[in-house]
Request: fold
Amino acid sequence: MRLTYRITKSLYAVYALVSDRMIRQDKFFLRPSAFPERWRHTVAKSQLRPGLTLIATPIGNAGDITLRALDALRDADAIAAEDTRVARRLMDIHGVSLGGRPLIPYHDHNAASALPRLLELLRNGARVVFLSDAGTPMVADPGYRLAKTILAEGIPLEATPGPCAAIMALTLSGLPSDRFTFAGFPPNKREARRRFLQELAPLPTTLILYESPKRLAASLADMAEVFGPRDAAVARELTKMFEETRRGTLDALAVTYAEDGPPKGEIVVVVGPPASPEPAGEADIDDALRDALTTMTTKDAAKAVASDLGLPRKQVYERALALKSG
Reply:
C-alpha cells in the first residue's frame, strides 16, 4: 500500500510538471480523477464565475503567471487591462487567444469613460477580468475605483493571487517581515516628501516604498535624515535578468546611489523598523516620578510615568511610595 501511494504521488509530480500549453488546452495525459481526492483540487480547472476577477501578472518574468490566471484569461467574456498592448503580449506568450472578445483599456486617465462600459457588461452577468501592466492590481496600480464601484453594486469580486514587487522585495531584504507597512510612492518634491516620511517615522514596522530611479538617491538621503540610522535594502529589476538587491544603512545606500548615478529599472526600497528604545533605568524612573509628584498625587504620578516609560503601573507606584516615604 505504501509503495502504491508513493508511485501515485510520483505520477502526480510528473503530471504537475507538464507544459502550460498542454494544461491550458486541456490535453491531460492523466486526468485529475486518477489521483486521490485530497490532491484533485490542485489540478482541477478553476471555474470563472460571473463578476470581476483581478489578475496578478508577472513583474518581469512572463513565466511567473499562474495557471489560474491563464484559465481566467482564457475563459473571460471580456478583458480589461491597464495597457492592452501589454495584455496582448502576455496572452500571445502563453497562447491565449483573444477570439473576438472585448479588450478594454482601463486606467486612471480613462476611468470615467471606461467604467460605464465595464459596469454594463458586469450587470448583464459577464465574466470580466482586469489586469495591470505588472504585479497585483490596486497595489500602487489602477483598479481601486473599479473594485469599489462594483462592490457597491453588489457585483462579485474575486482575485487570482500572484506576483507583487513589494512582497518580493521584502522577502529579499533580510529585514523583519512580521509587521510591515506599504507606503507606495513618496511625493516628488522634497518638502512634501519629508513631511510624508515624518508621518512614517514613528511606525514600529518595516516600511516598503516604491521610487523612481532618478529620485532614488535624494529619497534615500531624506530617509536617512528623517528616520536616522536604519538598515535598508534597495531592490530593482525583480525577476528580470539584471535583478539586484543592495543592503546597508540608509546613509550608506544614499551615498552609493548618489555616486553611481540613477540605476535602471523599477525600484523598491525596504526600510527596517526603528530600534527599540532602551528600557528605563531606576534613575530615569526616579527623575520622572519626582517631576510628576510636584503636581500630581502619588497614584496619578505613577500612572503617568508608567504610561510614558512603558512600565507596569504597580512597579512604578511602589517606587513612588518609596520616594515619598524616603
